[in-house]
Design goal:
Number of domains: 2
Structural class: alpha+beta
Radius of gyration: 20 Å
Distance between the termini: 7 Å
CATH topology of the largest domain: Arc Repressor Mutant, subunit A
Strand content: 15-25%
CATH architecture of the largest domain: Orthogonal Bundle
Number of strands: 4
Largest sheet: 2 strands, antiparallel
Helix content: 40-55%
Shape: elongated
Oligomer: single chain
Number of helices: 7
């Protein structure tokens, strides 16, 4: 009997991301290995969500890279169109109120380019970036069963959510 575990991340009525895994037994589905898979999935999606969902830039649990991605995508003080790392450094420091080395900004901009958050042009000496606007996701069907619902129902409902 196959066990299916599904994790969904929602904001209002919009599904932002989800994952689904199948296991041979309930024991496998609830194992530390399966839990680590879910934790890794959420950690890897965090950057994507930071660039697709506005965050409080002062939230301590976000990394500089995550705050920078959210700042570039959502903050009105971020440059629009093509920008340089020095322009981002100035506007990011003004918005967040903390000093960041230009080399740190440059490293994270290059990484955000590799992650598909930014577009890049120019030579190393005259490099410019701009934010790639992700396509707007389609709302998920209303009949979807969320993780919050699974956690709030009695054990019988959890069994049906895991498709035992």
């Amino acid at each position: 009997m196959a066990i299916k575990v599904r994790v969904e991340v929602w904001k209002d009525d919009l599904e932002l991301t989800s994952m689904e895994s199948r296991y041979e037994s309930l024991n496998d589905a609830l194992s530390p290995f399966a839990s680590k898979d879910i934790a890794n999935f959420l950690a890897n999606k965090r950057l994507m969500l930071a660039s697709n969902t506005p965050f409080d830039l002062e939230q301590e649990s976000l990394t500089i890279k995550e705050r920078l991605a959210s700042f570039l995508r959502w903050d009105d003080r971020a440059p629009r169109g093509w920008f340089t790392s020095s322009a981002i450094k100035r506007s990011y420091e003004a918005a967040v109120g903390e000093a960041v080395h230009l080399s740190t900004i440059s490293t994270y901009l290059a990484s955000l380019h590799v992650d598909g958050v930014l577009e890049r042009k120019g030579s190393r000496a005259k490099r410019e970036y701009r934010v790639l606007v992700p396509p707007t996701p389609e709302p998920a069907p209303a009949a979807s069963y969320t993780l919050n619902e699974a956690m709030s129902h009695p054990p019988q409902a959890q069994k049906s959510a895991l498709e035992i």
